[in-house]
Amino acid sequence: MPSPKPSPKKPGKPLQPLWLRVTHWLNALAVLVMVMSGWRIYNASPIFDFAFPSGLTLGGWLAGALQWHFAGMWLFVLNGLAYLLLNLATGRLAHRMLPVSVRGVLHDAWLALTARLSHADLGHYNQVQRAAYLFVIADLVLQVLSGLVIWKSVQFPLLRELLGGYEMARRIHFFCMVAIICFVSVHILMVMLVPRSLLVMLLGRSTLRRTAEENT
C-alpha cells in the first residue's frame, strides 16, 4: 500500500508583513528623491557657505528640482500616512516600538558596542532600534511641517511662527535632512553587519532556503 503523500507545509507568519515591506521601500524611494532634489534647491539659495556637488543632485535646474521634490513629497506623505495608520491599526507600533527607556537604550547600546547584542530574533527590536525608529518618524514629521512653511509660508502663519519664522524653518528643514542621512547611513551599516535583515525586508523571511521550502 503506497504511503500517503506528506501534506504541504503551511507557510509561517512572515517576520515583516507585505504592507510594511511595500511602504518601507516606497518611503525609501520618496526620501531619496526628496533629498537629492532638495540638494539642488538648496544650491539655488544656500543657507551655509557650501554647495552640494551637482552630480549628487536631482532635477538638473531649480524648476526641475522643485517638480521632483513635490513628486517625492506627495508620495512620501500619502505612503507615510498609510504606514502610520497601518502600524496603529495592527498594534505593531505599540508592540514593536514600545516600551523605550533611557536606561534600556544605554544598556542595549553598550551591548552593541561590545559586540554582545543578539540578532537571533529579527522580529524583535532592541531598544536602540526602537529609539532610532521613533526618532526618525518624529524627524520626518518635522521635515514635512517645516517644508509646509517653506512652501506655503503665508498660508500657514501659525505654523511658521511656531517654528521660529521662515528662515528658521529652512534651517530646521536642513538639519532634519542631515538627521535622515545619518539614520540611513547607520541603517545601511547595520544591514551590512546583519545581512539577513535585508532578506526580511525583501521577502519577509530571514533565509532563502525557508522561502523556497514554503513554495514547494
Automatic annotation (TrEMBL):
Localization terms from the record: Cell membrane
InterPro entries documented for this protein: Cyt_b561_bac/Ni-Hgenase, Di-haem_cyt_TM, Hydrogenase_cytochrome, Ni-dep_Hydgase_cyt-B
Keyword annotations from UniProtKB, A to Z: Cell membrane, Electron transport, Heme, Iron, Membrane, Metal-binding, Transmembrane, Transmembrane helix, Transport
Residues spanning the membrane: 18-41, 61-86, 131-151, 172-194
Source organism superkingdom: Bacteria
Membrane-topology annotation of the record: Multi-pass membrane protein
Pfam families: Ni_hydr_CYTB
Positions of the Cytochrome b561 bacterial/Ni-hydrogenase domain: 16-196
Any coiled-coil regions, as ranges: none
Gene3D superfamilies assigned: Transmembrane di-heme cytochromes, Chain C
Keyword Cell membrane: yes
The family this protein is said to belong to: Belongs to the HupC/HyaC/HydC family.
PANTHER family to which the protein is assigned, alphabetical: CYTOCHROME YDHU-RELATED, NI/FE-HYDROGENASE 1 B-TYPE CYTOCHROME SUBUNIT
Name of the protein described by the UniProt record: Cytochrome b/b6 domain-containing protein
Lineage: Bacteria, Pseudomonadati, Pseudomonadota, Betaproteobacteria, Burkholderiales
